[in-house]
Design brief:
Layout: E1 5-8, H1 10-17, H2 21-29, H3 41-47, H4 52-62, H5 87-90, H6 95-107, H7 118-130, E2 133-137, H8 140-147, E3 155-159
Length: about 160
């Protein structure tokens, strides 16, 4: 059985930055995984703040994670020198990826009062490309709703 590639959403990043114990334990445990946890660029942008404390904390977590297609990010597969170690990480989002995300926003049966979130849809697309995958999130209902719009996606959702 193949290990699941882990994808962080903004809720996981925020939990790490606030020192939430469950997030810290999970992140620490993932240091042993062959594929580093994934933080997609839009999630990084949602969470990044230029204050010194955030920059310092974020730098501690970014060295353990990969940001696909970002120059200067660590390779996705430990011991690999490039993104070639992971075909899904080597791929960039395409026009089709963004169209699929938009379609997900229209099809997802989100919880009441929840607004469509393109970044969450892109997190799910990233997980689907890496399947089997697991998304670590503070808002599993949204992720489940977006995942259900995909056929045969091998994605699990874990609340942190």
């Amino acid at each position: 059985m193949r290990a699941r590639t882990v994808v962080y959403d903004s809720g996981m990043i925020i939990a790490l930055l606030h020192g939430k114990p469950v997030a810290l334990v999970l992140h620490h445990a993932l240091r042993a995984a062959a594929h580093r946890p994934i933080i997609i660029g839009p999630v990084l942008a949602q969470c990044w703040r230029p204050d010194p404390q955030t920059v310092h904390s974020f730098s501690q977590y970014l060295k353990d994670c990969t940001v696909p297609q970002a120059s200067g990010s660590v390779p996705p597969v430990r011991g690999s020198a490039s993104t070639v170690g992971c075909v899904a990480c080597a791929r960039t989002f395409t026009l089709d990826s963004y169209q699929r995300a938009g379609a997900m926003l229209g099809k997802a049966a989100r919880p009441a009062k929840k607004r469509p979130d393109a970044v969450d849809a892109l997190v799910v697309i990233t997980a689907a490309l890496h399947g089997p995958a697991q998304i670590l999130t503070s808002d599993p209902d949204d992720m489940v709703a977006y995942t259900r719009t995909l056929d045969h996606a091998d994605i699990t959702i874990a609340k942190i």
